[in-house]
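Our preliminary data section would be incomplete without showing what the modeling component actually yields. Below, a chain of 273 amino acids is followed by its predicted structure, encoded as tokens that our downstream tools consume directly.
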Amino acid sequence: MSLPEVPQDWQAPLIALAREAGAAILEVYQTDFAVQAKDDRSPLTAADLAAHRVIARGLAQIAPHIPLLSEEGAGIGWDTRRAWSRYWLVDPLDGTREFVKRNGEFTVNIALVEDGVPVLGVVYAPVLDYLVHARRGTGCWLREAGTDRDAPLGSRRPAAAPLRVAASRSHLDPRTARVLEAIGEHERIGLGSSLKFCRIAEGRADVYPRFGPTSEWDTAAGQCVLEAAGGAVLGLDGAPLRYNRGESFLNPDFLALGDADLPWQEWIDGLDG
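Predicted structure:
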């Protein structure tokens, strides 16, 4: 049985909701906030929780029948989630390490997932007032700051050397370093959070290799954005990332590409693990 079509008029309230969550984050950002540790030892601040509350309340108003999975409310077991064919997947504050460092490179991520595929995505960086939104099969747009105007985005295809590689400021492991070496001539662009997906969608970067733990809420909105702009987010087996696959929320290793015809298989040849 097919799902009913996602209403066209959801995009505007989702954008408004991302901005409202961003405003809640900035209220904390401008204070001497405390930092706690999550179970995985990653940082947690009052901003994460404030944004979660804003988004949960807003999504319940937009679509009260659709369940929500948020990083700050991730205690929903697989026995419940396995029945979900459509749900919201949210990271209220992606890039908490960047938030703690006060470098502005953190985002609000909101995605709607259908049968494991992200079909709506909004990524908002409140310090930068930078917002990208997308609808699968329709397009990807940059919302001009302070306006309701959208500029369509498309990734750089074909991509040409030197490739521009978006690499985490907080995570650069040995396998990523080996891939950078295999790519050859390139320009490394240090970025945090889902901004990496967005820069590739804009054509300002070409590749984001990620080897190491990420969770599904870290990538769903960014994947929707990048795929709608013509790019791809692929596991090392060549399959697109998919969501709500089992008990674990962890993604496999992946590469985000503006141009899926790049020789990425050659870059990862010989990598282990």
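The domain at 163-268 is CATH 3.40.190.80 (D-Maltodextrin-Binding Protein; domain 2). Residues 11-29 form the longest helix (19 residues). Preliminary results of this kind motivate Aim 1 of the renewal.
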